Amino acid sequence: MHFTVIGAGAIGGTIGAHLVRAGHDVLFVDADTKHVDAIDRSGLAFHVRAPAVTVAGLADALRGRPPEVVLLAVKAMHTTAALEPVVPLLRAQSFVVSMQNGLNERVIASRIGPPKTVGAFVNFGADYLAPGRIMYGGSGALYLGELDGTMTARLAELGRTIQVAFLENTQLTSNIWGYLWGKLGYASMLFATAVVDETMADVLANPVYRPLLANLAGEVVRVADGEGVRSEGFDGYDPNAMRFAHPRDWHGIERSLDCLADFNRRSLKQKSGIWRDLAVRRRRTEVDDHIGLVVAAARDRGFAVPLNEHLVETIHDLESGRRPMTAGNLESLRRLNEEMYQ
What we know:
Number of helices: 15
Number of strands: 10
Low-confidence stretches: none
Oligomer: single chain
Distance between the termini: 54 Å
Radius of gyration: 20 Å
Strand order of the largest sheet: 3-2-1-4-5-6-9-10
Largest sheet: 8 strands, mixed
Shape: globular
Mean pLDDT: 96
Strand content: 5-15%
Order of helices and strands: EHEHEHEHEHEEEEHEHHHHHHHHH
Helix content: 40-55%
Structural class: alpha/beta
């Protein structure tokens, strides 16, 4: 298969490099000139060599050969802009796979149509370290699915290809929206771990913060239920345990958080990409396109999600420098949790 990887960072670079090593034809496209130059000069990841271009060079690089499979792996807020240069190049059999976090399949499908859009849920660990350098942190779930839930020949071929080249546990699903909403519940907890300078595992394992983490995820599950989506679990995350119920399944919550803490402790990537955006790269996170979407959907349905609302505000303050990254940020969320839910 021929792959055009738009966004050669943590996710796109990791998947693309493995595809190259397996013998597939891959073109890397990235907005960062230094990253593109480094890939051209020295290769990517385990020094695999593949052509890399900036967005301006995409049309020339694909001249005479329309893209077959486009792996879109940019940050959620850049989805529309990253998609535009490739849209005129798509042909009848071309399709775009959203290798992103969030609900970007909605954005892609609204531009090129659902039949040309394939959904993906990604939970393996990876980090962009420097131009030409990405780190694969460890295995995690990867699900692929058509937006309408059907099982198609192209989905099966794509799944086999990634399974052989990269992750053996790559799976196909008829409920890709369930995995995407499931990831939003887990993402809510990960955003909370990023407001302090601690590892993901240490925050997830801390009994003081577990009621807060469970209720952050519970708010997301409530919104997903309202949207008519059955949230799916993965890598220890159990949305059914997180769901608000009477009585609450605290045994299931503890078991899920234990699994998540263990999963993250075994990864080379100890802190989230969210934390890296805030503390290292000092740039805007994807909070508006992840948790912000949940908050907006909750308001549309008349649901209260006070913890997630406060979390978004806290991340905004950290992005702008209005507040430092201290333990007080997590404590503020914990106190609000006690006020609202205990």
